[in-house]
Design goal:
Blueprint lengths: L3 H5 L9 H8 L3 E10 L5 E13 L4 E7 L16 E9 L4 E8 L4 E10 L2 E7 L5 E7 L5 E9 L7 E10 L10
Antiparallel strand pairs: 1-2, 1-10, 2-3, 3-4, 4-5, 5-6, 6-7, 7-8, 8-9, 9-10
Length: 180
């Protein structure tokens, strides 16, 4: 068995930037999710999912795994596709913001974004492979829930288009187990 997991995972935030690291560190733990994908014609598709956040890289980053599970042989989730991807969120004190890298190798979807607090929300901005603007926001954040919005905007469009929304609820600690 490799020591990889032992060196990747961390027990908490690194002391040097502990306060800034809590922007995403507050999500560390396990979450159930209800996903709604929005088609351009207004059609909505729903699926259940799950999200898992943890401290990594000596507590200098937060990594997560987002999944929209499906039974073997089931069709792909419309619009958003089936997710089995990970985000690495690294605080960069030189820009006082977070560098975000999303990878979903099963769908060949990769994104780079910059994340910052905006009021009580967290907003991540970047571009898609086609050059559209991409905005992912965490809103309605409480200790036990958040709403995540995935939006795109083409250069020619006047407004952002909501593509995916995820309502996440923190899982309750299981008997005999403490939360992360």
């Amino acid at each position: 068995m490799s020591d990889f997991a032992k060196f990747l995972h961390a027990n908490g935030p690194h002391a040097e930037h502990a306060q800034a690291l809590q922007l995403y560190g507050r999500f560390v733990g396990d979450w159930d999710a209800e996903i709604v994908a929005h088609a351009p014609d207004g059609t909505r598709h729903r699926a259940a999912g799950e999200i898992h956040f943890g401290w990594v890289l000596k507590g200098r980053a937060v990594q997560d795994v987002w999944m929209i599970p499906r039974p073997a042989g089931a069709p792909a989730f419309p619009i958003a596709g089936n997710w089995y991807g990970t985000t690495l969120r690294v605080y960069d004190p030189t820009i006082d913001a977070w560098r975000i890298s999303w990878a979903d190798p099963g769908r060949s979807v990769f994104r780079q974004q910059i994340g910052r607090p905006r009021g009580a929300d967290i907003v991540q901005e970047g571009t898609t492979d086609t050059g559209d603007l991409s905005r992912w926001s965490f809103t309605e954040i409480t200790a036990d829930s958040f709403l995540w919005l995935g939006e795109n905007k083409s250069a020619a469009a006047p407004d952002w288009r909501l593509v995916v929304e995820v309502k996440a609820t923190r899982r309750k600690a299981q008997a005999g187990r403490t939360p992360n």
